[in-house]
Design goal:
The protein is mostly helical. Helices cover 59% and strands 0% of the residues.
Length: 231
């Protein structure tokens, strides 16, 4: 499998890393010492073994491990903070990233600015809370029929809530109030200063991501996993 871009590879690798199952660990079988001694890159090995023997998730997990090992911790944390869908790892990397962003802003402001950068506010992203159901019951329906229809509506409503919760369980959705910059500073700092702080923090974080992607491109290029590098 060859990725169309370094960003595609990073996003796919981090998404695979967030999958909670043991089968993904089969990526470790992709490499062995003999292949490595012969100097073959991963893309060559994948093609030589046949596409039907390599699972996409296995390759993504291999790429994730390769990048984690090859990148500097600050660059790995920048990618995880920006692109990972794994809650715990994203929060952990955001915490680590604070030490690599220089700013005169207080710690609370830095924390909230970085979090808002990594988890931008999306309109309509917040799941709706369903706390009621409606059902049309004919006026002449017998009592047993009424009870049956109400129970069926309640069951369907509960099932929908579970489906919605399952779809949103992997999302990190912050309260709208979190994005109010007035809550980021308790010292009454002028808005112009706060805006300047936010802009510089986001610029520094973007800079770390760009550096990380550049280094990741070098790593993936050496493995023959990028289209332009494999051409």
């Amino acid at each position: 499998m060859i990725y169309p871009s370094v960003l595609n590879a990073v996003v796919s690798a981090l998404a695979a890393e967030a999958i909670d199952n043991t089968s993904k660990q089969a990526w470790q079988k992709l490499y062995n010492s003999e292949d490595e001694e012969e100097g073959g890159d991963l893309a060559t090995l994948v093609r030589s073994w046949g596409a039907d023997t390599i699972d996409r998730t296995q390759v993504d997990c291999w790429v994730s491990a390769r990048l984690h090992h090859g990148l500097e911790p600050k660059h790995w944390d920048a990618l995880v903070a920006k692109y990972s869908t794994h809650r715990a790892r994203k929060v952990q990397s955001l915490g680590a990233l604070q030490a690599h962003v220089g700013t005169p802003a207080p710690k609370l402001f830095l924390y909230k600015a970085l979090t808002a950068w990594a988890i931008p506010q999306l309109k309509g992203a917040r799941p709706k809370v369903v706390n009621s159901v409606s059902v049309e019951i004919p006026l002449d329906a017998p009592e047993w029929r009424r009870d049956s229809m109400v129970k069926a509506a309640l069951t369907a409503g509960q099932a929908k809530v579970k489906r919605d919760e399952s779809r949103s369980s992997g999302m990190i959705v912050l309260k709208d109030s979190f994005y109010d910059m007035n809550t980021w500073d308790n010292d009454g700092t002028p808005e112009s200063t706060r805006r300047r702080w936010r802009q510089s923090i986001q610029k520094a974080a973007d800079g770390l991501v760009n550096e990380a992607l550049a280094h990741a491109e070098d790593i993936l290029g050496m493995e023959g996993l990028l289209i332009e590098k494999a051409a």
